[in-house]
Amino acid sequence: MKIGIPASRGYAIGQAFIKKHVELNITEEKVQDVAKEKDLLRKACEKSKVQLEKIKKKALDSMGEEKAMVFDAHLMLFDDPEFIGAIEGEIENNGLNALKAASDVSSSYVAIFESMEDEYMRERAADIKDVAKRLMNNLAGIEDSFDIEETNTIVIAHDLTPSDTAQLDKEKVIAFLTNIGGRTSHSAIMARTLEIPAVVGLHDITESVQNGDILIVDGIEGRVIIDPDHETVTKYVALQEAYNQEKEELKKLVDVKAKTKSGKRIEVAGNIGKPEDVHKVLENGADGIGLFRTEFLYMDRDDMPTEEEQFGSYKYVLEKMEGKPVVIRTLDIGGDKQLPYLAMPNEMNPFLGYRAIRLCLDRTDLFKIQLRALLRASVYGNLKVMFPMVSSLSEFQKSKELVEECTVELKAEGHDVSESIEWGIMVEIPAAAVMADELAKHVDFFSIGTNDLIQYTLAADRMSEKVSYLYDPMHPAVLRLIKMTIDGAHSQGKWCGMCGEMAGDETAIPTLVEYGLDEFSMSASSILRAKQVILEQE
Ligand code: PEP
Ligand code: MG
C-alpha cells in the first residue's frame, strides 16, 4: 500500500496507465539522406492513419457518425498532396529534418486558416494542429500520452500540469495519482472539479506500478492499494457504494439555501476553470460563481485567446448563471501555471516572482484584451471582477486605470458596459490581509485565496509534499490573518468571501462562519456538504 495526500474524495478501482513525460525536441539539424528522411515521414503518416482509423471506429461506436466524421477530415490530411507535399518539399529543397519540416509547414497552415474570414475555415486550424501533433509525435517515436483507450483507467504521472488534467477524458479516466504535489496544487483542484478521486504526493508511484496493474484508489484517506486481493476489493466496493449513497442523500440540499440555525444567510458559490464547469456548479445548487480561474481559457492551446473568444466565454457563464453573482478573476498565470506560448523568465521562486497581476501590469497589451472582453460581457449578467496577487493598493489602482481606459475606448466604439460591476481583490498575500482595513476603503469586496495565503504565511510551498505537514489552514497565524481580512472588509461595509480550498473544508467551515465570512466558494463537488455543515452551525 502507498500513502499520499488525499486530493479529491471518492474511491476508484481500475487499471494503471502510466503517463510518460516526453518533450518534442525539434532541432535545426540538416539531413544528409533525403530519401531516408522522406521514408521516415511516410512511415509516420502510415502509423498516424492506423491510429486514426482505430479512434474513428471507437468514436463511431460511442459518439455516432457525426462526431466520427471529424476523424475522416484528419485522415484526409495525411493523404493531402499539398500538405504532405509541402513537408516533403522542405526536406528535399531545404534539407530540413522531417520533424522540423512538419512543424514549420503545419505552423504556416495553421496561421493561414486562423486568419480566414470564414468561421468554419478558422475552426479547421484546430484540426491541422491535431494532425500535426500526431504526425510529429509519431516522427519522434512518442506515444500519445493521453491516447487512453480503456475505460476504468487510473492515470499515473510524476506530475500533471493543469492543462494535462483539463484534457483527461472523464469517460475513461476514473482517478489519478501523482508523485508530487499537494492538496492545493492545481491538478488536485481540477480533480475536484472533475469529481474524480485523486491522491498526490505519492513520491514514487510511477516506479511502484506497471501499466495495467489493478489499483484501488482511496481519495478520502489518500491510500493506493496495488494488486489488491479479493477481500480488499470487496471491502472497497462496499465503501464506494456507501460513499455514493451519501452523495445521493446530499442531493436533497440542492435547492436549500445555506443558513445558520440563528438565521444568518451564507452564500455558497462554486469555483470554475472552464465555462462548461458552470453546469456542475448549478447542478449542485450554488448561489453563484465565486471564482472563475480565467487562466484555464489560456491553457491547452497554442496561442492567446482573442478578445472575441474571451467575451464569448464570459458571456456564456454570465447568461447561464441568470443574474446570480459571477466573480471572474483576471489572468493568474505563473507559479505552477505556465503557458507554452508565453515566454516566462526562469525564476528561482516562481510563486514569488513574475505572476498574476504583476505580469498583467507589465503586459498591459494582454491585460487590456481581457479587460475589454470582461467589460463587454458585463451587460449579460451580474459581474464582479477581482485581481489576483495584489500586495498593495497601487496595483489595484493601476488596474482600475486600465479598466477606465478600456471603458472609454469601448464606449467610443459603440459597446455597452454595465455601470454596476463590482471590483475586488484576492487577499492571498499576507501584506494585503494585514492592510485589509485600508484596502477595503477602495475595493468593493475581498475574496480570500487561502491556497496562496497559507503558503506565504507559513513559508511552506503548496506544491511540495515534503513540507505539506507545515501547510496548515488552521495555524493560528493563518486564522488571525483571515479574521483581520473579514473584519477589515466589514469595517468599511464591504463583503468578504473565500475562494481558496479552505472554504470547502468541512473542518474549517464552523470557524469561518463564526468569523463572519459572507461567501464560501469551492469546487462544485464540495458545495452540498458545505451547505450541510453551515446548516448545523448556531
Ligand atoms: C488561492 O490562492 O487560494 C486561489 C484561490 O487561487 P489559486 O489556487 O488559483 O492560486
Ligand atoms: Mg492564488
UniProtKB/TrEMBL annotation:
Belongs to the PEP-utilizing enzyme family. PROSITE patterns: PEP_ENZYMES_2, PEP_ENZYMES_PHOS_SITE. SUPFAM superfamilies: Enzyme I of the PEP:sugar phosphotransferase system HPr-binding (sub)domain, Phosphoenolpyruvate/pyruvate domain, Phosphohistidine domain. The active site is at residues 186, 499. General (non sugar-specific) component of the phosphoenolpyruvate-dependent sugar phosphotransferase system (sugar PTS). This major carbohydrate active-transport system catalyzes the phosphorylation of incoming sugar substrates concomitantly with their translocation across the cell membrane. Enzyme I transfers the phosphoryl group from phosphoenolpyruvate (PEP) to the phosphoryl carrier protein (HPr). It comes from the Bacteria. The keyword Coiled coil applies. Mg(2+) binds at residues 428, 452. Residues 247-536 form the PEP-utilising enzyme C-terminal domain. Residues 151-222 form the PEP-utilising enzyme mobile domain. Its main location: cytoplasm. It catalyses: L-histidyl-[protein] + phosphoenolpyruvate = N(pros)-phospho-L-histidyl-[protein] + pyruvate. GO terms for cellular component: cytoplasm. One of its GO terms (molecular function) is metal ion binding. Signal peptide: none annotated. Keywords: Coiled coil, Cytoplasm, Kinase, Magnesium, Metal-binding, Phosphotransferase system, Pyruvate, Sugar transport, Transferase, Transport. Residues 4-124 form the Phosphotransferase system enzyme I N-terminal domain. GO terms for biological process: phosphoenolpyruvate-dependent sugar phosphotransferase system. This is Phosphoenolpyruvate-protein phosphotransferase. It is found in: Cytoplasm. Its cofactor is Mg(2+). Phosphoenolpyruvate binds at residues 293, 329, 451-452, 462. Pfam families: PEP-utilisers_N, PEP-utilizers, PEP-utilizers_C. InterPro entries: PEP-util_enz_mobile_dom (IPR008279), PEP-utilizing_PTS_enzyme (IPR050499), PEP_util_AS (IPR018274), PEP_util_C (IPR000121), PEP_util_CS (IPR023151), Phosphohistidine_dom_sf (IPR036637), PTS_EI (IPR024692), PTS_EI-like (IPR006318). Residues 24-58 form a coiled coil. It comes from Proteiniclasticum ruminis.
